[in-house]
Amino acid sequence: EPSNPLDWPARALLRARLAAGDGGRRLVSHDRELLEGMQRIVELSTLGLRSYGGGYSFYAQSREEAREAAERRLDQRRLERKRQTLAMREQQPRQERRQASG
């Protein structure tokens, strides 16, 4: 955490130097205020690497939107599976009657 041991003036200087840089930098931090000033956040998770343009607020919003979309897809798949299960249950007695009648 690059900003942990710093007082407010030093933190402001760090943010200014990061913002003034013309090249890429790697910064590992949990400091949301520091991350807010970044132009891109790259997250490493069990899903792999994901890149988000913008600071922490954009990153957090994008992650939440992705989570909600994944939740909707999961709900849709569960509903479709339930429909298929019900359809199979409805068809089973008909199929058994057809087989019994020859």
TrEMBL record:
Superkingdom in the source lineage: Bacteria
Protein name: ABC transporter ATP-binding protein
Keyword ATP-binding: yes
The entry's keywords: ATP-binding, Nucleotide-binding
Region (Disordered) location: 69-102
Keyword set includes NAD: no
GO molecular function: ATP binding
Compositionally biased region (Basic and acidic residues): 69-78, 91-102
Xref: PANTHER family: ABC TRANSPORTER ATP-BINDING SUBUNIT, ABC TRANSPORTER DOMAIN-CONTAINING PROTEIN
